[in-house]
Amino acid sequence: MTCLIDVDTVSKVIKKEKIIDSISCSFEENRIYGLLGRNGAGKTTLMKMMTGQSLPTEGDILINGQSPFDNPTVQSQICFIKESGNFKETMKIKDIIKFAPAYYPNLNKDFALELIETFKLPAHKKVSQLSKGMVSALGISIGIASRAPLTIFDEPYIGMDAAARQTFYDLLLEDYTIHPRTIILSTHLIDEVSNLFQDVYLIDEGKLTLSENIDNLKERSFALKGKKEEILPLLQHVQVLKETAFIGEYTATIYDKDMQLPSLPPTIEKKSLSLQNLMVLLTDQKKEERV
Ligand SMILES: Nc1ncnc2c1ncn2[C@@H]1O[C@H](COP(=O)(O)OP(=O)(O)OP(=O)(O)O)[C@@H](O)[C@H]1O
Fold it and tell me: What pLDDT, in 10s, does the model give residues 83-95?
C-alpha cells in the first residue's frame, strides 16, 4: 500500500493556543478513513493543513512527497468539501458543474449531473436560492464526482435528512468500489457511517489518541457483565473505560488494545460496543470513578 499523506510531528498554534499538538500519522492510498473527535478537538485545523489551506507551525505534511501549500499540482489532486462555504453564492448549480473540472481534473461531469438529479437539485438555481440541505447535497455531489485521489469531507451533510445521508453513503461506497481513492470523512454521526470506515483516527484536544483499523477496534472493545469479583482480576492489562454496578451486577466497558484479555468463563457475558460509544468513552474527560 502506498502512503499518500505523511503527517510528521505537526503542531499548529493559533493566537498563542496550541490547537494541534505534535501529530504524526499517515494515510494510505485508496482507503477510507474516519477522522473523529469532539467539537473543537482540532479535526478541521488538521484537514486545512493537509489540504494546503494553512501551514503547520511545526512539522511537515507531505502529499506524495510534496507539500500541498501553494502547490497547484498537489492541489489538483485534492477535493475538500467543508460543512459550508464551498461555493460562490451567486453561481448556479449548472455553472458550478460546468467549471468544476478546472479545479478537479478527474471530475466526471455526466456523473455530477446524475448525482444532482438523484438529490433532486434544481440545476438552474443559484447557491443563494438553495436550502441548507440542498447546498450540502451539492457539495457531496461534487465531492463524489470529483474522483480526486484525495477526497476529504468535513461534516458535509448539514441540513440533509436521514434518507439523503443514506443516499450519500451508498453512492460514495458504490463509486469508491469502482474508482478507489483516499477518502477522509470527519463526522459526529459515527454509527451511521462506521460501516464505511476502514481506519479510524481519533483526535482529542489536539492530540492523536488513536489510529486503528476498524475491524481491530470492533473486536477489541466491549462490555463485560457479571460478578465483580470474577471480572476485576481480568482487567489488569486492559484499558477500563467505564464501570457500573447495579443490584449485584457489575459491568466493565473495556478497550483491549493489545488483546491481553484471558478467555472468559461462561458466567461472564461479553457484549459488543458501538463505535460511537467507544469514541465517547475514549474522549470522556470525567473518567469514571471505580465503583
Ligand atoms: N482562526 C482561529 N482563531 C482562533 N481559534 C481557532 C481558529 N481556528 C480554530 N480555532 C480553535 O481551534 C480549536 C479546534 O478547532 P477545529 O475547528 O479544528 O475543531 P474541530 O475538531 O473541527 O471541531 P468541530 O467538530 O466542532 O468542527 C477550537 O478550539 C477552535 O476554537
Answer: 988 999 999 999 9
Closest approach atom of ligand 1 to CA 37: 21
Q: Pinpoint the alpha helices (H) of the chain.
A: 43-50, 72-75, 93-103, 109-118, 132-146, 162-178, 190-193, 214-220, 228-231, 275-282
CA of 112 to the centre of ligand 1 (A): 31
The CATH topology of domain 3-205 is: Rossmann fold (3.40.50)
What is the amino acid identity at position 48? K
Ligand 1, residue 15: give the atom nearest the CA. 4
Residue to probe by mutation, ligand 1, list 11, 12, 14, 36, most atoms within 8 Å of CB: 14
Measured in Å, residue 46 CA sits from the centre of ligand 1 at: 10
Give the global pTM: 0.92
What digits encode the pLDDT tens for the residues 138-181? 999 999 999 999 999 999 998 999 999 999 999 999 999 999 99
> What is the atom index within ligand 1 of the atom nearest the CA of 48?
18
List of residues 6+ apart from 155 with CB closer than 8 A: 82, 83, 186, 187, 188
Pairing outcome for strands 221-226 and 249-255? antiparallel
**Averaged pLDDT, 65-93:** 94
For ligand 1, residues with CB inside 6 Å are 14-15, 19, 37, 39-45
Q: Using CA positions, which residue lies closest to atom 12 of ligand 1?
A: 19
In contact, 11 and 21? CB cutoff 8 Å: yes
Q: What angle do CA 282, 284, 285 make, to 5 degrees?
A: 130
